[in-house]
Amino acid sequence: MDHPRPCGCKGRRTCLSCEKDFDIDRIDYSQIFQLKAYTFCPHCNRIYPGWDTDTVMADHERSHNGDEGEEYSGIYIELDFITADEENRLMRGIDEMPWDISQSGRRKQNFGPKTNFKKTKIKPGDFAGFPQFSEFVQTKFNDVPLMKGFQTIEQCSLEYTPERGASIDPHIDDCWIWGERVVTVNLLSDSVLTMSRFRRNGEKNRYNLHFVDKYKDELIMNLPNEEELDRFDERIVRIPMPRRSLLVMYGSPRYQWEHAVLREDIRERRVCLAYREFTPMYIKGGSEYSKSQQVFQLAQNFWNHSEVNPHNLTSF
What we know:
It is a single chain. This protein is an alpha+beta fold. It has 9 helices and 18 strands. The chain has helices at residues 16-21, 29-32, 53-59, 84-95, 135-141, 212-215, 226-229, 251-255, 289-298; strands at residues 37-41, 46-49, 70-71, 75-78, 100-101, 107-111, 114-116, 121-123, 130-131, 154-160, 168-171, 182-187, 191-197, 236-241, 246-249, 257-261, 270-276, 302-303. A 7-stranded mixed β-sheet has the order 3-2-1-14-13-16-11. β1 (37-41) and β2 (46-49) form a beta hairpin.
């Protein structure tokens, strides 16, 4: 099972198709995460007891029934970041382009440099910039104070549908190449990001987390120590991702928590645009900038998807 199956899954990652065809028992994270669930309220930026994000968000109108909630720093949500018309424009362009199969029942469209996380090597590959119909999203980032200085160098469309049992297992985005701010624009339907504490347990190099020591002084917020995080023992935190919202994850949730999208939280077709920036080592003035300078130049390009084959962009 270490080799890709026809559906795109491999290893422990599964979808409804390969679970049926290969008689695979999936890992049911929704059961694992039932203990002490809290939900982040995007209206008051605090967490409250409860698994169901719709209920907790509705309770905001009732002042969460007198519960003062708890601080959970490192999450920014802007509701209605894009309009319904802008969403329609994005989806029209996205669906006019070909999809690639991905693991765990997802499909993807990826625009970014070619990276090897194990060997920590990067090259432009076929990267030639981004589809023009999505340019306005990056422009809108300029109106978000938290996004100041954000330079998009990867944009990925990800599709989740209940028919395929789509999900993504708990993980931390690579820390060697992808910078602090993990950005998502959510389209078509509401969903949830489920956060669980990550403990290294001797796995120093997992997710390339050891690279964080090289730029920790440049992070937006100081990372709490393990003792400060102990109050979250045996808890998970549920982050709502309402339709047309912007989510920015940084600081402690970015580096000290794994995030997942559970199959049970995909009730309708959901498409998200995921945006990544480089770590400080690869931006101008950083020690590795010579290896990324060409990528930054290519990232200024926005091409007409109706005139260019996205799988043959090397001649662009």
